[in-house]
Amino acid sequence: MSKKVLSPRERSAAARARLLAAANELFYAEGVQSVGIDRVIEHAGVAKATLYSAFGSKDGLVRAYLQARHAATAERMTRELETRYDTPKERLVGTFEVQGLSFTEPGFRGCAFISASADAPPGGVVEQAAQDYRTWLHELFFDLAQQAGAKDAKSLAHQLVILYDGAGVSAWLDRDPSAETAARTAAAALIDAAIPN
Amino acid sequence: MSKKVLSPRERSAAARARLLAAANELFYAEGVQSVGIDRVIEHAGVAKATLYSAFGSKDGLVRAYLQARHAATAERMTRELETRYDTPKERLVGTFEVQGLSFTEPGFRGCAFISASADAPPGGVVEQAAQDYRTWLHELFFDLAQQAGAKDAKSLAHQLVILYDGAGVSAWLDRDPSAETAARTAAAALIDAAIPN
DNA sequence: ACACTAGCAGACAGGTCTGTCTGTCTTCAA
DNA sequence: TTGAAGACAGACAGACCTGTCTGCTAGTGT
Q1: In a domain? residue B177
Q2: Which of A106, A160, B104, B120 is the most exposed place for a label (fewest CB within 10 A)?
Q3: What is the pLDDT of residues A75-88, one digit of tens each?
């Protein structure tokens, strides 16, 4: 039980982690705008002052939430692609399988960045975080398309990004995880057409 | 100048129309949650009581806003497809051209139903309106795919819906209207593969 | 002429949100 | 042992939001 003896540094880090976890759950489930600070601190079991000393403002917490989400998504995608597939071409298609894993997870609510961007004011922290995420997504597909030897990697990557976005939206709004199959099938056809065998 | 002589009935209808127009502009531009009643009535030049007598509640106004948006979108799509293209197959591809028209319009902010659904509580008016819209969208593609003689109309329609959703998301989040070209190109390839010539 | 309808303007209540501040308690370091 | 740091609980201010209510004005029908 080293639970009761925590240095201030450890206590601080633990509180921060609990806040981020609570923000992740509540913000993703109900939307950034709909969830107030009080709900977050109650769910995290943390004082309000702790939140403001750790993140400065609600915007700061939102930024941290989106950055953590981005990092977790990228990390998971990279890891799964590496362990499950061998060639760039397989990975290009596999991207949709990995995305589809989340469709059936409890509490799936679509892409967090699309949701957060919906009501976000222009020039705010959400816009910046979303832009970073979009850049990553485009580069993911572009790099794989290039490695797979696509004739027009930029064009193929753009098409696959669109399929990826659409699959998430359809799985969410239609409550239909089969969007993964549809998107993957379409992606495979486009990839086969764009890559000389 | 028949502007000053209006029957109560006419005045009422005019106030309702102004409210709906104001709601459409503000809700779409800044999000349903972010815009308060006061902003709407000020923009419409209407008293608060008028709003509540016409729509009952903010939820009522939101419902009317989304229904009007749905009707306008469906009407525009049907009309443009009819006037611009002749065959079901052309119309399947043309759907993306018609969608793309909005990408370059000033104030484009992506699909209103995706945005509104982002922070919407489950079981609310937004969810119902979004469901109606999604049903229409799926039927639009399914009917066209069937008329075009697709081997598996259901599967093709699903793929095209995903492309349609993704094109809107990409055009919005990436500020890139070329999503229309990418989506249309991909759609054409999928359609050609799915329809026996 | 007179009640009726309906919009307008704005005050108001009740609730919620963010962010600040006060005071208490615990742990670590000097 | 004593002071610094930091978490906790909660009060508080100021703003905003929804929804109701009260006067006021203007046109309509009897």
Answers
A1: yes
A2: A106
A3: 999 999 999 999 99
